[in-house]
Design goal:
Chain lengths: 275, 305
């Protein structure tokens, strides 16, 4: 397990040039009224440019919290973290990442067009540039022609695709996705997974993806980070080098099943001490 | 089954009225009218009986009922007397006449609308301050709430006197009293509205490292619109109340408040009731107007109709 992380990045002098995210011995404790909650404990993780990394684990294992730390939406209480070689705060101010939430979080008073151009408005792009970007990224998520619709006129899957287009529209190199398909039915989910994979192939972005579905993680990722709760920690990092042009059929292959088994074993190990 | 299926197409007018709100509404109004007429007899009868006794006239029940519905200064006027008074003072007089209710309504409406405008602006400004400045959140809200515990009737004369001393008379002092009442629901509603975006929508803005100015205009303000209109509907109605109350201590010669005051000086109950009916009709109209603007605004914002 640890050897994978070590192989990517020599511990002595920090991260290599291709490292997007470098986390060293990071912990986060929430102070609550009765007792402190150890949300994250001793996290070590390096993510290289162009990787697709999934965080998987049962609810409460801190996978979303870890991603929020990367996004500077939570502050760690201990340890170091750098994103693109700078602090998460500086990375956020430099608009280094696009974040896709569990829910589409579209603004209901804005049309699809206006929702996708929201970050572009904030970042001050010209109206012409905004229109071009919106058209380009709506096409990319197969939603060309829906510009004038309001969110309530779209299905859940379509809404989530709009939110992905919104995260891509300002062309960040890093994409943080927090269970983006968790609320969708399995058929839609499979379809979007395949689309996301094509997107990753096309755009060469670095993706961090939080999920609690083993098949989803194995299908999408180049690296799977298995986490366990109380305290939230990494128990295993599994490499997953299925060919980039894989399709959903690969889920029946022995290689796929082998990796899925490995992930399941890891999750079980994390739970063995549990009540 | 077939009979059931055929029925909806063959509904009579009466059945359709039963379905709608028409019949219940008509029933309620009818019951109220009956109670009102009965009440008028009950309340006015003692005065009449006393009169009959002093004049030693014989009386019948029909006569008593007739008389109690047609007195000059009844305790409770009958509805038709109010209708006659309304017709007389709205349609039969020139609208510039001091005895025209249209004239008095206009005087009241103008200070209502000015006060409503002041109150809305003040309410929104306070809410924006409370939401954005932590110190204001802690210090201002208790004062805002305390301000509403002072009876408006107690504070209105002082406002008029103080402003009169500095040379402010007429419309503005009345509008300020209106404002005093109506900024409150706007502040409370807008504080809630500006805080209504969910954490995810707020986090999204944070990931774009948006300025607070951008968060305000692109997220907080549009989210607060439904709350704003709910507040405005309450505010517009009570700003009318404020305007009427403001007309009482001034000894104002114009406005619905003045009309009520004069009516009570001279025991003109019919006149009072007519002014009351006009005041409530105005309030209803103002609220309906706000609902209409709300519908248009929300439709423009793409809310599912």
């Amino acid at each position: 397990m640890e050897k994978t992380a070590a192989a990517f990045s020599p511990h002595e002098d920090g991260a290599s040039a291709g490292t997007v995210i470098d986390i060293r011995n990071l912990s986060l404790t929430f102070q609550t009224a009765d007792a402190p909650v150890f949300a994250l404990s001793g996290i070590d993780l390096q993510v290289e440019r162009g990787e697709f990394v999934s965080f998987i684990g049962p609810s409460g294992c801190g996978k979303t919290t870890l991603m929020r730390v990367i996004a500077d939406l939570e502050q760690p209480t201990e340890g170091q973290i750098s994103v693109n070689g700078v602090t998460p705060r500086e990375a956020r101010l430099a608009r280094a990442y696009g974040y896709v939430f569990q829910a589409p979080a579209l603004y209901p008073w804005r049309t699809v067009q206006k929702n996708v151009s929201l970050p572009l408005e904030i970042m001050g792009l010209s109206a012409k540039e905004q229109r071009e970007r919106v058209a380009r990224y709506l096409d990319l998520v197969n939603l060309g022609g829906f510009e004038g619709k309001y969110p309530w006129q779209l299905s859940g899957g379509m809404q989530q695709r709009v939110s992905i287009a919104r995260a891509l529209s300002f062309e960040p190199e890093l994409l943080l996705m927090d269970e983006p398909f968790g609320a969708l039915d399995e058929i839609t989910r499979d379809h979007l997974n395949e689309q996301l994979l094509r997107l990753w192939e096309k755009t060469q972005k670095t993706v961090i993806f939080v999920t609690h579905s083993i098949p989803e993680a194995v299908f999408l990722s180049s690296k799977i980070v298995v986490m366990s709760p109380r305290p939230g920690r990494i128990i295993d990092i599994i490499d997953c080098n299925l060919p980039r042009d894989r399709t959903l059929d690969i889920r029946e292959s022995t290689e796929f099943l082998k990796i899925a088994h490995q992930v399941r074993e890891g999750l079980r190990a994390g739970h063995s001490y549990d009540d | 089954m077939t009979i059931d299926a055929a029925l909806p197409g063959e509904k009579t007018m009466f059945a359709r009225a039963m379905d709608g709100r028409g019949l219940p509404l008509a029933t309620v109004i009818l019951v109220l009218l009956v109670l009102w007429y009965a009440g008028a007899v009950a309340l006015n009868a003692p005065v009449l009986l006393d009169k009959y006794k002093r004049q030693n006239t014989d009386w019948t029940v029909t006569q008593l009922v007739d008389d109690s519905w047609s007195m000059d200064r009844p305790l409770l006027p009958a509805p038709h007397q109010i209708v006659v008074e309304l017709k007389k003072s709205i349609f039969d007089r020139k609208i510039t006449s001091k005895r025209s209710l249209v004239y008095h309504s206009w005087v009241t409406i103008s200070s209502t609308l000015l006060g409503f405008l002041f109150g809305t602006v003040l309410g929104v400004v306070l809410a924006v301050g409370i939401v954005h400045v932590r110190a204001l959140d802690r210090s201002l809200l208790p004062w805002v709430i305390a301000s509403q515990t002072i009876p408006i009737l107690a504070i209105a004369p002082m406002v008029i006197v103080v402003l009169g001393a500095v040379g402010l008379t007429g419309l503005v002092p009345k509008a300020l009293i209106s404002m005093y009442l109506c900024f409150f629901p706007v502040t409370i509603g807008m504080v809630k509205g500006l805080r209504s975006p969910d954490p995810m929508q707020m986090d999204l803005m944070r990931t774009y490292s948006a300025s607070s100015w951008q968060v305000f205009w692109k997220l907080r303000w549009p989210s607060s619109v439904p709350f704003l209109f709910a507040s405005l509907k309450v505010a517009v109605a009570i700003s009318l109340v404020g305007a009427i109350v403001a007309e009482l201590p001034t000894g104002a010669s114009a406005g619905l408040g003045a009309r009520l005051l004069v009516g009570s000086y001279y025991g003109q109950t019919i006149q009072i009731w007519a002014a009351l009916v006009v005041a409530s009709a105005l309030a209803g109209t103002l609220v309906a107007l706000m609902s209409m603007i709300e519908k248009i605004a929300l439709r423009r914002m793409g809310v599912a109709a």
